[in-house]
Every structure is written in structure tokens, then in C-alpha cells.
Amino acid sequence: MRKTGLQKNKIKIRWVLCLSVLAVSACDSGKNHDQQTAQDKGTSSKALPHLTLKETRAAYALPFCEKKDCIEMDIQTIQTQDAWLNQWITDHQAMVVQSQIGLRQNMTLQQAVDAYIKKSDAWQAEFDQNPAYELHMQTRIASQRNQYVLLQISVNSRQADTSIQERQYFFVADRKMKKNLKVLDVIQAGEQNKMNGFIQTQYLQWLNKQDSHIKQAAPKKLYWGQSDWFFDGEGVGLHYRTSEITDDGSQLDIYLSKEQTQQVLKPEVYKQMF
């Protein structure tokens, strides 16, 4: 009888242990599920919302003009729900306005407009037949991939004795880090030489197609660390405006393939951008 009772007790103990293990497993499973849910919520909460865009006129004032030939200026901008990005756009518009008259200072958009008007007035004061300056600016978000935003500013302008000139400017922002990005910010430190090789190959191909006087005036190697850059559906690229490399040189756009881009871009940037 003792033996049978002992066996029964052993069976009961085993059942209790089994039930305890099942209960603990169920609790752990529930905890893991809750933790995973919390992680998923945390991840989604970090994801930035897609930008809603509204086209509008930039905020700046022009002085009253009594001249027969008054300055023409029209700056169209983009408003979004991201206050930091709105200011970033305005700051780069100010840079672009300054670049039309050879300035590169830390100015607000209004200060840049005032400097542009002052330069126009000085030009008209030299000779009464000199036309006032003219500037028309279109601003758009060319692409947005997660936190990365590509801003494109198109300018038609005329300064001094030049004819109407068309220019394109590109800038990239990281909304999550709230910073402007240069191409060197997104290239792996150990892959800059490879990036340089891709760029110089395409630059030489472009240079070989230019007239002899441009070949003589152009640099043997292209400096690219501070250039305008962009990204599209395939990869990243660099943009050089007309006359930016040499006075008479044409526009140059360098495109890296998807494979080249993946080789040189920081992995975390490539994952979010492509």
C-alpha cells in the first residue's frame, strides 16, 4: 500500500510541476507578446509622418518703387506640418537669393532680398537705362524617403547685364536628426576613395566632350565634397550648374547606379533612402 501511495504522490507532484511549467510558459509568452507589442509601438512612434505640402508665397516684403523699371521678384515656397523643415527651406531660399549676387552670408530671407534689391539699385544708378534685376523662384519637395527630404529650388533670374538664366539647386535634409546633409555625411568613411573614383570617371567623360578652351580652363579633378547632391529611385548623384565648373561649361549631373550607391553609402542611410 505504501508503495502505491508513494507512486500516487509522485504522479500528483509531476502534474503540479507540469501545470506550474505551463503557467510560467504562458506568462513568459504573454510577457514576450507585450514586450514585442511595446517595441512595435515604439518603432512606429519613431516613424516620421509623411509630409503634407502646401504651396504658398514666401514671407518677405519689397519696398515701394517709384522708378520706371522696378525690380521683379516672385518667390514661391512650400509649407509643411514640420516647423523645423519649414525654417530649413527658408534658410536655403535665402542662400539661393544671395548666390545670384555672389554673397554667402548667414542671412534671413528678408535680409537676402534686401541685399538683392540694394545690388539692383546700385546697378540702375550706374546708368539710367540699366534694367532692374529680376528673380523668379520655384520651390518643391522633389522626393521624401522616411526622414530624408530632397529640396529642389528652380531659379530664373537676371542680374546686371546678363540675360535670363535658369539654375537648379538641390539640398537634402534629415528630418529625424534635424540637420542639413552634405554628400560626405552619408558616405562610408572607408569608401570615399571609391566614391571619388566613380565621380572622376564620369567627370572625365563629360570633360572629353567639351570644347578645347573649356578643357584647358576646367580642373583636372572634380571637387565634390560640398556640391549639391540628390537621390532618385536608383541611387545618389551630384549636380553642377551651368558655368559652375568653368565660366562657359555646361550643366553636369553625375548619377551613381544602384550598385555603386550601395557600395559607398552608409548602410543605415541606404536602408532608409532606398
What does this 3D model show about the protein?
With 274 residues, the chain is an alpha+beta fold. It has 2 domains: 54-181, Fervidobacterium nodosum Rt17-B1 like (Heat Shock Protein 90, 2-Layer Sandwich); 185-273, Heat-shock cognate protein, ATPase (Actin, Chain A, domain 4). It has helices at 2-46, 83-99, 109-126, 183-186, 192-208, 212-217, 258-264, 267-273; strands at 54-57, 72-79, 134-145, 148-158, 165-174, 179-181, 228-231, 236-240, 252-255. A 6-stranded mixed β-sheet has the order 1-2-3-4-5-6. A 3-stranded antiparallel β-sheet has the order 7-8-9, covered by helices on one side. The longest helix is centred in the first third of the chain and has 45 residues, at 2-46.
Distinctive features:
274 residues, alpha+beta, Heat Shock Protein 90, Actin, Chain A, domain 4, 2 domains, three-stranded antiparallel β-sheet
Strand content: 15-25%
CATH homologous superfamily heading of the largest domain: Fervidobacterium nodosum Rt17-B1 like
Question: Mean pLDDT, nearest integer?
Answer: 86
Helix proportion: 40-55%
CATH topology of the largest domain: Heat Shock Protein 90
Q: Residue ranges: pLDDT <50 for 5 or more in a row?
A: 1-45
The string of secondary-structure elements, in order, is HEEHHEEEEHHHEEEHH
Discrete helix count: 8
Query: CATH top level of the largest domain?
Result: Alpha Beta
Structural class: alpha+beta
> How many individual domains?
2
Q: Architecture of the largest domain, CATH level 2?
A: 2-Layer Sandwich
Give the strand order of the largest sheet, numbering strands 1, 2, ... along the chain.
1-2-3-4-5-6
Largest sheet: 6 strands, mixed
**Number of distinct beta strands:** 9
Between the first and last Cα atoms, what is the distance in angstroms? Answer: 75 Å
* Backbone CA Rg: 30 Å
Taken from the alpha-carbon principal axes, the silhouette is flat
